[in-house]
Specification:
Helix 15 runs parallel beside helix 18 (about 430-455). It contains 24 helices and 6 strands. A hairpin with an 8-residue loop joins strand 5 and strand 6. The longest helix is centred in the first third of the chain and has 36 residues, at about 1-35. The chain folds into 2 domains: about 1-45 and about 340-565, Orthogonal Bundle (MetI-like fold), CATH 1.10.3720; about 50-275 and about 295-340, MetI-like (MetI-like fold), CATH 1.10.3720.10. It has helices at about 1-35, 45-55, 55-90, 95-100, 110-120, 125-130, 150-175, 180-185, 190-220, 225-230, 235-240, 250-275, 295-325, 340-345, 350-380, 390-395, 405-415, 430-455, 455-465, 470-480, 480-495, 500-505, 515-525, 530-555; strands at about 40, 40-45, 90, 290, 325, 335. About 40% of the residues are buried.
Length: about 575
């Protein structure tokens, strides 16, 4: 009888999870595909032809592809030497440096763009400082951001996204058997030849996986181009098309193009090297893969890594400074300082309301992820359910589904007369669900790992003593995997607080604005203090995210990096 109830409960849970995915993942994607390819029931590619016929859209596609490609190459160039020294050398403070190198990952490019623009604008702090020193003429400022902000976006995305590439490449390098390098060196290979013939082929899967994530992230980044005012990229064109969905179907074609590109890259990163793998002979290492660094090498490593960190954190330092400024206009540093902007965001104004909205949305999304993640992981590890592979794929699909695409699908697919589900009327439900769907893979991975590490014999013993399946889950299994679940829930909460694309697209009324949408709106206002209040909100978001990631790192330790690897 107990087994029958357990089987019935498993089917019920599977049906509920499937219904959730069908309503909030499959339906919006299929709706966009239908709108992009069918007119009055007939298949057509006319919308795609109209996009390609538009000079503006062609330029946007070219800019986005170039931007993503340059960002990916730059992160690879930065990460390769970092991964090499961190996996080949042992030196004083290595653990501390490894943690510091990941700090830019907790600094959202959307927030950093505000600071970088303040520093590198034509009359920003850098140019003004050079003018005061006599290096530049007052009427000839340097265009550091380049081509309307294009190179500023590349630089900021590189400095923000290199930790993702670094995690993937360093993990691949750490798994290389040192005896292979020793054998190649004994045969006369050294330097570039050793890297090209031994190291590079073995790290290609990890490098390509990291490159895919960085490329997708850079290609679909909406917040950074908006802050820089660089509109001729695909994400901004999709954002602008939201207001004219019923009259201009070009937005559907662009979204489907992004969906196809990101899904194709994600699948390619998973399958390409399954067909052509570079494997090592499975035997124990004969020696320590790390060698002690000399004092000179240690100093050079810290100088290079410290310089990179200083560049990566400089935009966010400028955000902190502006959040404390009373007036910062045409001066290298603020003329007056104040903390009033922070007290303001805790009040009853719109900025304070956005903080409360974000806390509410993020808390609900983390709770929903917790329920879904535990359910999916339990079904995959503890029950033999049909189409388990499909369930696992659906749970991981959001990794390849940018928030830009999902939010567009929600706006288009749920434009109905029911106010509480229509984002144009009340986006609360869809904001919570979009945040949840986007970060669900983190919770599933955390819960799945916890269930795998917990012996099923404990649950069987509980069942033999008469405990119901729910009581066994509540009393035995969940307490044993609590650390994994807490880490995953905190991580989903933190990233939801600073989710950009979903917030900018779905929150259309000021009373429902989360933090990121309020930051964007404040930067567009003419009030002198608006940018400083926006920066104060950004600093608050960075603090919440940083504190959350430190908490997760303390629980998961080195396993935390697995959440950010493909």
């Amino acid at each position: 009888m107990t087994e029958n109830r357990l089987r019935a409960g498993s089917w019920t849970l599977l049906a509920l999870v499937s219904l959730f995915f069908a309503a909030f993942l499959v339906y919006p994607v299929s709706f966009m595909l239908r709108e992009a390819f069918f007119v009055e029931g007939r298949f057509t590619i006319a919308y795609f032809a109209s996009v390609l016929a538009s000079p503006l859209q062609r330029e946007a596609i070219a800019n986005s592809l170039l931007l993503a490609t340059l960002t990916t190459l730059a992160t690879l160039l930065v990460s390769l030497p970092l991964a090499h020294v961190m996996t080949r050398f042992r030196f004083r403070g290595k653990g501390l440096l490894a943690g510091l190198l990941l700090i830019p990952m907790i600094m959202p490019p959307f927030v950093g763009a505000i600071g970088l623009k303040q520093l590198l604008a034509r009359f920003g702090s850098v140019n003004l400082a050079l003018m005061e020193l006599g290096v530049l003429a007052p009427d000839r400022p340097v265009d550091w951001l380049g081509q309307g902000g294009f190179w500023g976006i590349v630089a900021l995305q590189t400095l923000s996204l290199y930790p993702i590439m670094f995690l993937n490449v360093s993990a691949a390098m750490a798994n290389i058997d040192p005896s292979l390098r020793e054998a190649a060196a004994n045969l006369g290979a050294d330097g570039w030849r050793l890297f090209r013939t031994i190291t590079l082929p073995l790290i290609l899967p990890g490098a390509f996986a990291g490159a895919s994530i960085v490329f997708i992230w850079a290609f679909t980044d909406l917040g950074t181009p908006l802050i820089f005012g660089f509109s001729r990229v695909v994400p901004v064109q999709i954002f602008d098309s939201i207001s004219e969905l019923n009259t201009n179907p070009a937005g559907y074609a662009l979204v489907v193009f992004v969906l196809g590109l990101t899904s194709g890259l994600f699948l390619l990163s998973k399958r390409l090297f399954a067909l052509r793998r570079h494997e090592m002979i499975g035997r124990g290492h004969t020696g320590d893969p790390e060698r002690p660094a000399t004092p000179g090498q240690t100093l050079r490593i810290w100088i290079l890594a410290g310089g990179l960190l200083a560049l990566a954190l400089l935009p966010h330092l400028a955000v902190v400074i502006q959040s404390l400024s009373e007036r910062w206009f045409f001066t290298v540093l603020p003329e007056q300082w104040t903390t009033a902007h922070y007290t303001g965001i805790g009040g009853s104004g719109q900025a304070g309301l956005s903080v409360r909205n974000s806390l509410f949305y993020s808390s609900l999304s983390a709770s929903l992820d917790l329920v879904l993640g535990v359910t999916i992981a339990w079904l995959l590890t503890r029950r033999r359910v049909p189409l388990a592979g499909l369930l696992d794929a659906l749970a991981m699909l959001p990794l390849a589904l940018p928030g830009l695409v999902l939010a567009f699908g929600y706006v288009a697919g749920f434009d109905v007369a029911i106010a509480w589900i229509n984002p144009r009327q009340n986006p609360t439900l869809l904001l919570v669900i979009s945040y949840s769907v986007r970060r669900l893979p983190y919770l599933v991975r955390a819960a799945y790992a916890g269930f795998q590490q917990t012996s099923i014999a404990l649950e069987e013993a509980s069942a033999n003593l008469g405990a119901t399946p729910f009581r066994t889950l509540r009393k035995i299994t969940l307490p044993l995997v609590f650390a994994n679940l807490a880490a995953g829930a905190v991580l989903t909460f933190a990233f939801a607080m600073l989710e950009v694309s979903d917030s900018l697209i779905l929150a259309m009324r000021e009373q429902y604005f989360p933090i990121t949408k309020m930051i964007y709106e404040l930067l567009g206002k003419i009030e002198p203090t608006a940018p400083s209040v926006a920066c104060a909100l950004g600093v608050l978001g960075m603090f919440i995210l940083a504190a959350s990631l430190l908490f997760v790192a303390r629980i998961l330790g080195r396993k935390m990096g697995q959440l950010f690897r493909a």
